[in-house]
């Protein structure tokens, strides 16, 4: 199956009826798409009650891609509210319990930072993460080109296959070592993840400037680009049973519209989505 969705569910205004409360947005979101990326888990390990609420608000076939907490991927800025890495991983794993029990956890995404390059030390840390996460399905997203340089490419793919990591295939501007190319290679026969960040090359380089996050993902895919991704997704679907494609280009509110357009171009229709009851009020 090809699961299509966006990152987060709070900011996609074109999906929601006027006046819908924030607490109801996930329920209404699930009437449009069968999967979503949970971003709030990157900024803080979520209380189990939040994860249970989100699990209960979605239909049986809905799937969550949960982003790993920033302290687990080396993004942390300031003090981490855990006494040890062991405690941090334990707390994060515990938070996943409701989704695991309901069969709604597609994977946890470890998105490593641009400075996480291809070194022996970092390979060891990736193995450490796998050990601490146990049997949880894990996806990995690199943001440093060294992992895909000619001298490391085959070893990177082989390593991910051997360690049973789900490869994250990205679409993003090619802007130096802090960006990665499109690599249409699955490393897990069950699942592959695609994340579309847009192609705003100028914005991608503005890291650290005011509002850089908003500028970085300001991009709207055109029809030609989306048709290309229909073909790319089909190629990856030959390699993996399930492919998850998430649109992250939402600085200008484009992600949901692009995801809908992608579904039309791909001829994909989902059964068993949530009912659109909120449209009645």
UniProtKB/TrEMBL annotation:
It comes from the Bacteria. SUPFAM superfamilies: TM1631-like. Coiled coil: none annotated. InterPro entries: DUF72, UPF0759_sf. This is DUF72 domain-containing protein.
């Amino acid at each position: 199956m090809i699961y299509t969705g966006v990152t987060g569910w709070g900011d996609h205004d074109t999906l929601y009826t006027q006046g819908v409360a924030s607490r109801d947005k996930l329920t209404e979101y699930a009437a449009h798409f069968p999967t979503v990326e949970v971003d709030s888990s990157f900024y803080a390990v979520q209380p189990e009650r939040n994860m249970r609420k989100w699990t209960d608000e979605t239909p049986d076939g809905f799937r969550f891609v949960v982003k790993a907490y920033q302290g687990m991927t080396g993004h942390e800025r300031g003090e981490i509210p855990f006494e040890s890495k062991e405690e941090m991983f334990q707390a994060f794993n515990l938070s996943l319990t409701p989704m695991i029990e309901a069969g709604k956890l597609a994977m946890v995404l470890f998105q490593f930072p641009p400075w996480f390059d291809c070194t022996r030390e970092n390979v060891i840390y990736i193995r450490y993460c796998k050990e601490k996460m146990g049997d949880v399905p894990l996806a990995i997203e690199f943001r440093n080109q060294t992992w895909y340089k000619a001298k490391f490419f085959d070893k990177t793919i082989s390593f991910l296959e051997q360690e049973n990591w789900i490869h994250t295939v990205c679409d993003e501007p090619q802007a130096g070592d802090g960006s990665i190319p499109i690599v249409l290679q699955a490393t897990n026969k069950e699942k592959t993840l695609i994340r579309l960040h847009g192609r705003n090359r100028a914005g991608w380089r503005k890291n650290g400037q005011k509002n850089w996050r908003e500028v970085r993902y300001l991009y709207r895919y055109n029809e030609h680009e989306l048709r290309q991704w229909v073909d790319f997704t089909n190629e990856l679907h030959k390699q993996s049973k399930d492919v998850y494609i998430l649109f992250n280009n939402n600085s200008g509110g484009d992600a949901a519209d692009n995801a809908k357009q992608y579904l039309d171009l791909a001829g994909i229709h989902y059964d068993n989505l949530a009912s659109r009851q909120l449209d009645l009020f």
